[in-house]
Design a protein that fits this description.
Aspartate Aminotransferase, domain 1, binds pyridoxal-5'-phosphate
Length: 373
C-alpha cells in the first residue's frame, strides 16, 4: 500500500493510525458498547466547551453543514429575525440556509480579510429591535481569519440577543468557554481540530433553548430537538448511526486528552502555522492576513506574480511529493490555502515547506512574491 498523502486541507484531514484502527469492527446500532461510547463522546464534547448542565451535546449524521442547518432550523423560531455576520463563504452559507427556510435575515458583511467589529454589531442591534439572534463564524475557514467572538458575544448579550456560533474549524484548538461566552448553540464536526473522520457534526446547545424548540424545525431529518429527544430517551440515534465515525471520534478524543486538550492542541497547531508561514515567507510568499488576524488553522497565501507560476502545476507537483493543498475561494484576491490542522507536526510542516521550495525551483519561479499591491 502506498503511503497516504499529508492533507494540508481543512478537513478531511490526516488522522492517526490509532484513530483509523478504531474503525476496524462492526457494531450494531443497539449494542451497549456503541450506546455507551456515544454517550461518553457527547459528555466529552460538552466538557471541551466547558459547558455543564446548562447545555447539551446533540450529534447529527452528515458533514458539518448538516448540523449548522439543523441548529438554525431548530433553535431559531420561525417568527424571529437573524443578523448574520459575514466575512467569507460560511457566513454566506448560513444566510442561504435561513433564506431557504424562509426565516427573516439581515447581514453585516465585511471583506474577507477583515473581522466584523463589535461596534458595528452593537450599532446594528441598537437600530433593529426585531433581531433576536446573531450568527457568527469563529474561524472563517475561507481565509483563516479569527473573528473576535468574545467581543461579539459581549455586545450580543448586552443587547439581550442570542448568539449562535459556527465554530466548525476552531473547536478543540481555540478556546471557547461556555462560562465566559454566552451562546445558545455552537456547531462543530468530528473531522477538523478534533482529528476524527468525516461523517458526524454536533452542536452544543443551551438546554433551555432546545427544550423550547419543539416543532420549530422545517425538516424531519434535520430536527435537532427530535434527534435529542430520541437519543435522551433510549440512547440510540433516530436513524442509522455513523457507528465507525463515533468510535473513531472516541479514539481521537483520547489522543486529544493525552495532548493536553484545547491548550495542547492549539499549541501544536500554532507551531505548525509558524513553521509554515516562516518557511513560505522565506521564499517570498505573502499571507493574505497579518499575523494578528491569523488563526492557526489554515493559511491563505496570495498567488505569486511570476508568470511561470501556474497553480494547477504547483498543486499537482506538491501532490506528487505527498502534500495536498487547497485552492483559495476568496473574492478579494487570487489565493491558495495550506492547512495547519490534523495529525501533523513540525516534521510534516518542514517537509511541506521543502516540497514547495523544490516545486517552485522546478517551475523556474524565483520568488513567491505576489504582484505589488
Ligand atoms: C468545514 C466548515 C463547515 C462545514 O463544512 P462541511 O464541508 O459541511 O463539513 C462549516 N463552517 C466552517 C467555518 C467550516 O470550516
Amino acid at each position: 500500500m502506498s503511503k497516504d498523502p499529508t492533507l494540508l486541507t481543512p478537513g478531511p484531514l490526516t488522522t492517526s493510525a490509532a484513530t483509523k484502527r478504531a474503525m476496524l469492527h462492526d457494531w450494531g446500532s443497539r449494542e451497549s458498547s456503541f450506546i455507551e461510547t456515544n454517550a461518553r463522546v457527547r459528555e466529552r464534547l460538552l466538557a471541551i466547551a466547558n459547558a455543564g448542565d446548562s447545555h447539551v451535546c446533540v450529534p447529527l449524521q452528515g458533514s458539518g453543514t448538516f448540523v449548522v442547518e439543523a441548529v438554525l432550523g431548530t433553535v431559531i423560531p420561525r417568527q424571529s429575525k437573524s443578523l448574520v455576520l459575514i466575512n467569507g463563504a460560511y457566513g454566506k452559507r448560513m444566510t442561504r440556509m435561513l433564506e431557504t427556510m424562509g426565516r427573516a435575515t439581515v447581514t453585516l458583511e465585511t471583506p474577507e480579510d477583515r473581522p466584523p467589529s463589535a461596534e458595528a454589531v452593537d450599532t446594528a442591534l441598537a437600530s433593529d429591535n426585531d433581531v433576536t439572534h446573531v450568527l457568527a463564524v469563529h474561524c472563517e475557514t475561507t481565509s483563516g481569519i479569527l473573528n473576535p467572538i468574545e467581543e461579539i458575544a459581549d455586545v450580543t448579550a448586552k443587547r439581550g440577543r442570542v448568539l449562535i456560533i459556527d465554530a466548525m474549524s476552531a473547536f478543540g484548538a481555540i478556546p471557547l468557554d461556555a462560562e465566559r461566552i454566552s451562546f445558545d448553540a455552537v456547531m462543530a464536526s468530528a473531522n477538523k481540530c478534533l482529528e476524527g473522520v468525516p461523517g458526524v457534526g454536533f452542536a452544543i446547545v443551551r438546554r433551555r433553548a432546545l427544550e423550547a424548540a419543539e416543532g420549530n424545525a422545517h425538516s424531519l431529518s434535520l430536527d435537532l430537538f427530535d434527534q435529542w429527544r430520541a437519543m435522551e430517551g433510549n440512547g440510540q440515534w433516530r436513524f442509522t448511526p455513523p457507528t465507525h465515525v463515533i468510535f473513531a471520534l472516541a479514539a481521537a478524543l483520547d489522543q486529544f486528552d493525552a495532548e493536553g486538550g484545547v491548550e495542547g492542541r492549539g499549541r501544536r497547531y500554532a507551531e505548525n502555522c509558524r513553521i509554515l508561514t516562516a518557511g513560505m515567507r522565506r521564499m517570498g510568499f505573502c499571507t493574505l492576513l497579518p499575523d494578528s488576524l491569523q488563526a492557526p488553522i489554515i493559511v491563505t497565501f496570495l498567488m505569486p506574480a511570476d508568470p511561470r507560476f501556474r497553480f494547477q502545476e504547483f498543486y499537482d507537483s506538491l501532490r506528487d511529493k505527498g502534500f495536498v493543498i487547497y485552492p483559495g475561494k476568496l473574492t478579494v484576491a487570487e489565493t491558495f490555502r495550506m492547512g495547519c490542522i490534523g495529525h501533523i507536526g513540525p516534521a510534516e510542516m518542514r517537509a511541506a515547506v521543502d516540497a514547495v521550495q523544490e516545486t517552485i525551483e522546478e517551475m523556474g519561479v524565483e520568488t513567491g512574491a505576489p504582484a505589488a499591491a
